[in-house]
Amino acid sequence: MEIFHKHKGESKIRISRELSEGEKLGTSNRKVRVKKCLDSLGIPCNLDDVPNIAILGAGGGLRAMIALHGTLQELQKHGLLDTIMYLCGVSGSTWCMSSLYKNGDWTEKLQALEESMCARLSKYTWSVPKATKMLLEAAKDENYSLTEFWAYTVVYGMLHELDKGHLSEQQSASENGNNPYPIYAAVDERSFSKVTEYSPATWFEFTPHEASFLGYGASVPMEYFGSEYKNGELKKQKEEKSMSYLQGLWGSAIGSKTENEKVLKDIFFGFFKGEKESHSPSKESCPEGIVKGFPAPTIEPEAGDMEGSLQSEPAGASPGGFSPGSVVDFARMWQKTTHGLLTWKWGTNNNFLYKCSALDSTELVKDKVISLVDAGIAINCAFPLVLRPERKVKLILSFDYGPFEPFKALKQTAKYCKENCIPFPEIDEKLLQEPDNPSDCYIFRGEGAPTVMHFPLFNRVNCPAYVTEWRIRFTPVRCLYHVGDITKLLQSARLNVLNNKDKILQEIKYIVAHSRKETSS
């Protein structure tokens, strides 16, 4: 049963387990392209037999962002990317995805997009005026939390991009059939603290069409996520969250709480000290800013970007370039960020299910605001989202880029599925005996369950004798990369696809053949 609460047309919330109309359209159009690709690979099948294949990109900061890009490019090189129906990311992988989907035909432009990414990530400075402008504006919102400060300083400093675009603007790129349908993962902090990662109630997903509570089958159009609702009715429309904000929300846990707290406090207390020198790094130098290993702040505007830059400091300007007129805004931001550090509050947004009578959950509907955070604190690979039965995923390609032992997400997912009666292949512990020196591909099959192919980023095949060293060298907490290290990461990710492309093809063939048998019987 599908229940709509309507107010002014498209602002309705939806209580239903069904996929959104936008996702249905996108996957229907994508299926035609997948069939064409399978035909070209020598796997002819009817449109009804086209299997839904999902890529899962694990979290892992910049390491994950870079590695996912290499993975996708290598799949494209071998004609396998167009077999993929869904692309689902956690944390750093969402940074890669959100950048790609700004292009309606990104699957055909991966080489050019890689070059652009390398040039951007290897920058050594970030613009304080640009970040400040975003922060002061964000702090005017009553739901300002550490996520805004994290997004507009830490994530901006790492990605060298403040994206004012919106997730809903990716609808065209997700509907046209040219690209896999994107799913971005988060978790509800309140549910996570009460029922842990093993409950569907913990999980939250974003797509270009909707933002949704997985466990409740409750969704709101993406354009209205963050707006004020009461009992299913829109009370106050707010501007859609920027992509930079969402990148901060999805990627808010690049390290442990202790590591994140140190980065935040160092940047917070050093951010506005009024340092006047601007850095002009050479290719050989890599100046460190407020935080060791973090790009250096500069008061100079970014090249080609005059928006938000301070062309000159007016008389009486305070250190750091603040004019007297912005003192109130600055004080507000300072106070709210300090409060956030004391209370450790992240990702606060208006709850679109507030006092919603159509929902049974008394716990959720009584909260006027919700707190959404990085899904990596739960399961660092978003299996729960692609295991929704409505998505009918038959093959999962799980690429592990995370900081933990490479089988942790698999084991957690097996437990999640067992506790929630969700079909999932049995994970043979005998195959997982060498977490410090893993192989490059593990395959798990089960009757009535999707097949899972799991690829640890660093393994004894693509970096023999260097697995531990490279895990440390390319730690997810690392905030700054040279071009040479970006190239090494890309190559490691590519090798995992190159060395296993035939295995991937074999699994696709098996699934299509099995689907034919089921259809004929």
From TrEMBL:
Q: Which GO annotations describe the biological process of this protein?
A: glycerophospholipid catabolic process
- Renumbered to this chain, region (Disordered) spans 297-320
- PROSITE patterns to which the protein is assigned, alphabetical: PLA2C
Q: State any single GO MF term.
A: calcium-dependent phospholipase A2 activity
What the entry lists under InterPro entries is as follows:
Acyl_Trfase/lysoPLipase, LysoPLipase_cat_dom
Which parts of the sequence belong to the PLA2c domain? 5-521
Keywords in alphabetical order, please.
Hydrolase, Lipid degradation, Lipid metabolism
Q: Which GO terms describe its cellular component?
A: cytosol; nuclear envelope; nucleoplasm
SUPFAM superfamilies according to UniProt: FabD/lysophospholipase-like
Pfam families annotated for this entry? Answer: PLA2_B (PF01735)
The record's section on PANTHER family has: CYTOSOLIC PHOSPHOLIPASE A2, CYTOSOLIC PHOSPHOLIPASE A2 GAMMA
Name this polypeptide is given: PLA2c domain-containing protein
Instruction: Read off the lineage from the record.
Output: Eukaryota, Metazoa, Chordata, Craniata, Vertebrata
